[in-house]
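FORM 7B: Structural annotation worksheet

SECTION A. Query
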Amino acid sequence: MKAVRTYLATHTFALVTLLSLLPAMAFANAPDGGIKHFQEVKPQSYCTSGEGADSRPSGSIFRGGRPDSDGLTYLAKLPVSTVINLETDAAVTEARLVSELDLPLNEINFPMPGFGVVQLPDGQIDRDEIIAAIAELRRSKNFPLFIHCTHGLDRTGMIVAFHRVFNECWSPTDAEAEWSHIEGWFSKLFQPEMHRYFREVTSDQALSAYYRSRLQQANQFQKD
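SECTION B. Predicted structure
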């Protein structure tokens, strides 16, 4: 019995240690210019004339985690002209850094919670806020642009996946596959609500039509 207890104690400790390290392991990739999970989202539209954002600039969208001062400087040198911030708690700090560093970056904020989907005070999903964020990814004057949340995986992944579907006419399956590949299994494990909502929007004809209608109204952005 003593040997069994020792075995269980040893392996339980090892398992707990491994689990405690998983978040660090999941986010251990080296940042580019002070930005975690930096990715280039190259334009790849399957839209026919009149669909999606077919007149959107052909330049790439950049995505990633929260940039520090080095990261913001790196973005300005790319050059990026617009930073879309999906965080709820870092917008003021980021705007202050941009000002202190005197960087030519335009900050646009769409605060979204770290878990789940952005909601109104009555608990309903704030679809219009999500649509407004997607619309910014087809606005000419925003390019080149960088979109981020804390780690650049979940909130960022959902908005970019919607961009692929509604702005570039990708199939929902392909858009979510790209999102999941960048996000990784560990992060996805804790973000089922975002994936569930993405599938609801892209599979429900009425809801999908609402998104398309509202984004069509936003096509004027492309002329700004």
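SECTION C. Observations
The chain has one domain: 32-223. DSSP finds nine helices and five strands in the chain.

SECTION D. Sign-off
Analyst initials: ____
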